Amino acid sequence: MPMKKKQRFGLIVFIILLILFVLITYEPWNKGRRGMETSMAPDAVPPVIQLNWPSIRAAFPNTGNEDTLCNYLGFDLAYNEAYEQAAWVCYVLSREEIERGNVERSDDFRPDPNISTGSASLDDYRKSGFDRGHIAPAADMKWSEQAMSESFYMTNMSPQLGSFNRGVWKRLETQVREWALEKDSLLVISGPVLEEIDSLIGPNEVGVPPCYFKVLADLSPPDHSFIAFLLPHKASQASLFSFAVSVDSLEAFTGYDFFASAPDQEVIRWLEQDLDTTLWAY
User: Fold this and answer.
1) How many angstroms separate the CA atoms of 118 and 136, rounded?
2) Averaged over 113-125, what is the pLDDT?
3) pLDDT for 41-73, tens place per residue?
4) Which of 160, 235, 271, 274 suits a disulfide with 165, CB 3.0-4.6 Å?
5) Which DSSP category does 62 fall into?
6) Residue 129 and residue 120: Cα distance in Å, rounded?
7) Would you say 147 and 141 are in contact if contact means Cβ atoms under 8 Å apart?
8) Are 258 and 189 in contact (CB under 8 A)?
9) What is the rounded distance in angstroms from the CA atom of residue 279 to the CA atom of residue 220?
10) How far apart are CA 155 and CA 79, in angstroms?
């Protein structure tokens, strides 16, 4: 009996649908699709969480500004000429440095001769009502007399309220040293937020930042992790974790690109979006 036209059309549609079903469910294609989705997922865990940096320069932030890069024995910094202070400082803090550190605080605050146009001066802070607040803490440099002395260059100072500098900021600095002892080696990036500054002090018009940040990277394998802190420039008794943010969130707030030159960007992207405070218990 000859097949009617409608029956033939229905059979053709059925065959086409069957072919499409086989193609979609065929395992090699399905595996490839799952692999692509996994690699594209922003929160996908890389197969190996390992940092392979040729030098500390791989961690330097890109601020988008023409800051002056200065290298010292214990830290590196990018000097922001507009506001006469570091945009950021970067250094590695190790358990060994802390354990053998016995150098006394030098307190030799002075202008930085490495800034050709002249850094901030002591006069800028005199009777200003602000502390000369360290960005790279002097207590992190006790392993070397030179490192300790260089931490008192005015390029490493920022105008900080005493209640902030000797309060929550000091608490965070102290806790960073505790984490370095526990984890063996930390990379530290610290600085002021040089946006929306509406207050200047001294003849050189040093900017008073509204916030400060710290980024920490656990360099000790196998459990690499990142954590960042964003602190309003005011006194606070709150838990340090109330200021904890992901590096991604800090980048969005500051406009900085942290770890911009690191070669292992897949790992960096995952670590930057992750915030797991259980890895930083205190």
Assistant:
1) 20
2) 97
3) 445 555 455 566 668 888 899 999 999 999 999
4) 160
5) B
6) 16
7) yes
8) yes
9) 13
10) 7
Which residue has tokens 């690699």? Answer: 39
Q: Please state the domain extents for the chain.
A: 5-39, 56-280
Q: Which helix (H) or strand (E) holds 180?
A: helix 169-183
- Reported as type and span, the H/E element at residue 208 is none
Summarised one tens digit per residue, pLDDT across range 216-261 is 999 887 778 999 999 999 999 999 999 999 999 999 999 999 998 8
In this structure, which topology does domain 56-280 adopt according to CATH? Extracellular Endonuclease; Chain A (3.40.570)
Give me 225's structure tokens: 């992790």
Q: How far apart are CA 68 and CA 251, in angstroms?
A: 20
Whole-Å CA distances, 37 to 27, 41, 201, 271: 15, 6, 53, 19
pLDDT tens readout for residues 193-220: 999 898 999 999 999 999 999 999 998 8
- 275 half-sphere exposure, CB direction, 13 A CA radius: 14
Residue 164 is given by DSSP the state I
Summarize the confidence of residues 74-91 as an average pLDDT. Answer: 97
Using CB atoms within 10 Å of the CB of residue 1, give its burial: 0 to 12 exposed, 13 to 18 middle, 19+ buried: exposed
Per residue in 133-146, pLDDT tens? 999 999 999 999 99
Spatial distance between the Cα atoms of 54 and 263, rounded to a whole number of angstroms = 9
- Positive/negative CA dihedral, 19, 24, 27, 29: positive
Beta-bridge partner residues of 2: none
Q: Is the pLDDT of residue 27 over 90?
A: no
Q: What is the pLDDT of residue 30?
A: 37
